[in-house]
Design brief:
tRNA processing (chains A, B); 20% strand; metal-binding (chains A, B); alpha/beta; homodimer; 5-stranded mixed β-sheet; 147 residues; zinc ion binding (chains A, B)
């Protein structure tokens, strides 16, 4: 049965919610295989940089034994912030797929637009919107329950 | 004898160069005391996110037992990239002091200008230029030796 990488990222987001973390999940794929899965762990680790994307990038570099993730795609349930977008560029990830867009804190198609700066020495394809409704529903339910 | 925090950051940068890493060092201070020191460790850790600032932020959060570095200042020898600028905002650091500016990869006063976006939910004071000549000299010597 076909299972999309974004579905795996959504499963990670759901796990994050169950652990009391803002539900964002990420997956890194290479040649059709998943090389890293991660979810937000800011609360658990007491680390403001422990976003799903950052952890997935570090895991994938470990897994592949390289600080360059050329040939890899990152699938994440929410538009990355400026920090994570910068990490995507630093890791030379070829393709970014994000589900929900984030006008408040996103740094890819909003705000700092880190991957679209003329300065960028790396070209990353950007794909937006796949499973956006599912990703947003997870976030809405999480914040509604905390109010 | 007065010793500036930027001098400590420069010492970290020098250590990075000796270890074969791009010479950038960072220090985080709070109420006049250093709470974290770090230098680039990208090569050592095989991790493209292991910039001095990222490691200093994670160390300071550990040290202070908080994911918020309110009341802290970050001293770094080179203008932070977009990733590190995003981490500075995520950690709620109050003040950033950087030495050399980085037109090519900087994300504070160049490129994405992450800390100056209208979107930013956090105000970080930016101070530029202290010990810029010393920080640039370290970088120039490092890259000249590798050519």
């Amino acid at each position: 049965m076909f299972r999309s990488f974004m579905q795996d990222a959504l499963d990670q987001a759901r796990e994050a919610a169950e652990a009391g973390e803002v539900p964002v999940g990420a997956v890194i794929s290479r040649r059709g295989q998943i090389v890293a899965r991660a979810r937000n762990r800011m609360v658990e680790l007491g680390d403001p940089t422990a976003h799903a994307e950052m952890l997935a990038i570090r895991t994938a570099c470990d897994e592949l034994g390289s600080p360059r993730l050329t040939g890899c795609a990152l699938w994440v349930t929410l538009e990355p912030c400026a920090m994570c977008a910068g990490a995507i560029a630093a890791a030379r990830i070829d393709r970014l797929h994000f589900a929900a867009s984030d006008p408040k804190s996103g740094g890819v198609v909003h705000g700092a637009r880190v991957l679209s700066q003329p300065q960028a020495h790396h070209i990353c394809e950007i794909h937006e919107g796949a499973r956006a409704d599912d990703a947003s529903a997870l976030l809405r339910a999480f914040f509604a329950a905390r109010r």
